[in-house]
Amino acid sequence: PTGDKRNFNSNNNATNQPQRLINADQKRRKIEQQRRSLPIASVEKRLVEEVWKNDTLIIVGETGSGKTTQLPQYLYNGGFCQNGGIIGITQPRRVAAVTVAKRVAEERCVELGQQVGYSIRFEDVTSTSTRIKYMTDGLLLREALLDPKLSRYSVIVVDEAHERTVQTDVLLGLLKDVQKKRSQNSNGASGNYDHVKKDNNAKEKSNEVRKLNPLKLIIMSASLDARGFSEYFGGAKAVHVMGRQFPVDILYTAQPETDCLDAALVTIFQIHMEEGPGDILVFLSGQEEIESIEGLVRENLKKLPEANQKLLIYPLFSSLPSEKQMKVFTPAPVGFRKVILATNIAETSVTIPGVKYVIDPGLVKVRSYSPDSGIESLIVVKTSKAQALQRSGRAGREGPGKCYRLYPESRFEGLDDSTVPEIKRCNLSNVILQLSALGVDDIIGFDFMEKPDRMAVIRSLELLYLLGALTDEKKLSYPIGHQMARLPLEPNDSKALILASQFDCLEEMLIVVSMLSVESIFYVPRDKLEESRTVIKSFSSPEGDHLTLVNVYRASIEFLEKNKTENGNEKAEKNLRKWCKDNFINNRSLKHARDIYNQILENVERMGLKISSCGDDMLPLRRCLAASYFLNAALKQPDGTYRVLANGQIAEIHPTSVLRRSKPECIIFYNLVQTTRNYVRNVTRIDYLWLAELAPQCYALKDN
Ligand code: ADP
Ligand code: MG
């Protein structure tokens, strides 16, 4: 502490202040210095000028150069919020929206949710005073439903556009249209320097001025090729922000790895034991993988001599609660090393200071849709070259670094140059539903940057039609289509909720949908497989996984409520954590599911759906599942595998399912996962005859 004080002796005002204030001041100055040293800081003035001059601007800059955190602040200071207009910044990922908003609030010394805020599905941290608003691209699309001209926004920044998520692509098309509509409204005066002055003088006419203002649109991308975006926006200007990159040594394995988790684990310890200071960033494909490595690292760490145990583990994935997400940015104490276990989030969306070593198994989990089968699945695929380069680049931000690619060099040469945009490989029914709700009926004719596959569009339209969301004229049906578009869920899930209110099991379906919105409710350490099976059995329903999830949820709520009355809220939450641990339940996921439950409950209440429970008789729930997820029905084959009725695909029941042994004749499943084999996950037993009864639009004709 004496050291700290000495630093501040030069600051006259601060000498008599309490320690806390001195620290706050010190922190502020450090942040200021960090901000000034970012590559983007040297072009602040030029960027603001360019935005005034151009209604659409493309900004390309290396990851970590300061685009996401700084540009919105430059625009704020540059006068773009003068008449109460909001600067909206969209992100493909929730985590990025949350962590960046927190960082920017901190940089500006404001309370999060005031001047700077964020809004993501199921979580809105903004207020009427919010001017810099980070959000997911999907959320802005939903806002467009209520406010088609996005009139509250003066600037929209579409960040991470190189990711080309389906929501980003739809948003780009939509924003182009909004821009057109808003400039038709204005009297032709596009942005230029006069704007600043005009706006200053026109306080009393502010509403009018705002109405006339065109929408400023900024596309930000980490990929150096801006041509595609520029062409799409009629030759829009592109500005390049120079980055700073130190050399990164790329190391490959001699042989292909058979067990990537094991290879990653070995490499983590190899670096930890043999290399100099610097944090390690490991790219993994999802929460499950991250949590299983987290456990393995902890176990192995205990076996090391105490002096070598100074390794701190930080997971980073989208469904992690946000307090935990922020922890990853805390620098490691002196003598300690951090290892960050992250999904693709850390590739370009968030930059964690201190990383010197990157471990890249070369894999990424993506959505995949084949129009033939009409079923979307999650698959783990090889990254593209561009992704591999982005990942290795993360090691060289603050000094020379090393990247360990867990595959042989020959494989790198064979990788695709860049990733196929998601719109080319996902189920489009959600997009179509949203666009229909916005009044766009002709999906094929919509001005996409890259057109989706015709067959995929037709298949997705078909699904919406089968769900009753579209009429014969491909218009949104009333009330079902409209209700479905209003719910922030995939069409199948929305339909399940709407039907559940008729089947008198909406409470249970809400639980199912919430629990399925989070990844892995059960958490099973590798070494406790047998023990966990016995414990988990106490929740399991012979009818399947959906009902098992309902049992877990109900048991946890019952435990929590009882504890609250006995011990108070805080103690109860703590006890629940212990309860989860004892029952091999993932506390994080469960809490997240509870939040989602409450949010969707609010939604369906507002829609006026009848909320009732089927109590202990789960038959209505199973029938309702069959009526909603009828496309995901499968029949047992003589060899014990299952044939998906809709397309003949063959799959097995996932080993984590409670039905993996009993193998009923007919099932419906929630998702299809492809690894080395096809697996169906979250499976429930149904009666084959229900399909014809409850989904005649799909099954009755075929069978007669
Ligand atoms: P870009 O968008 O160009 O990739 P960012 O604006 O995300 O760059 O990041 C700029 C800098 O801010 C990086 O050095 C990053 O480490 C830092 N940064 C971002 N978020 C945080 C945070 N929550 N805590 C500490 N530093 C952060
Ligand atoms: Mg960024």
TrEMBL record:
**Residue stretches making up the Helicase C-terminal domain:** 267-439
Residue ranges occupied by any Helicase ATP-binding domain in the UniProt entry: 48-242
Keywords from UniProt, A to Z, are: ATP-binding, Helicase, Hydrolase, Nucleotide-binding
Gene Ontology CC, one term:
nucleolus
InterPro entries on file: DEAD-box_helicase_OB_fold (IPR011709), DEAD/DEAH_box_helicase_dom (IPR011545), DNA/RNA_helicase_DEAH_CS (IPR002464), HA2_WH (IPR048333), Helicase-assoc_dom (IPR007502), Helicase_ATP-bd (IPR014001), Helicase_C-like (IPR001650), P-loop_NTPase (IPR027417)
Q: What Enzyme Commission number(s) appear in the record?
A: 3.6.4.13
Q: Where is this region: Disordered?
A: 182-207
BP GO annotations: positive regulation of transcription by RNA polymerase I
Q: Its domain of life?
A: Eukaryota
GO MF assignments:
ATP binding; double-stranded RNA binding; helicase activity; hydrolase activity; RNA helicase activity
> Entry's CDD domains?
DEXHc_DHX33, SF2_C_RHA
Q: Which transformation does this protein catalyse, written as a reaction? A: ATP + H2O = ADP + phosphate + H(+)
Q: Ranges of Basic and acidic residues compositional bias?
A: 194-207
Q: Which residues cross the membrane?
A: none
A Pfam short name = WHD_HA2
- Reply yes or no: does the keyword Hydrolase apply: yes
Enzyme class, top EC level, equals hydrolase
Name the family. Belongs to the DEAD box helicase family. DEAH subfamily.
Please identify the protein, giving its name as recorded. RNA helicase
Classification of source organism: Eukaryota, Viridiplantae, Streptophyta, Embryophyta, Tracheophyta
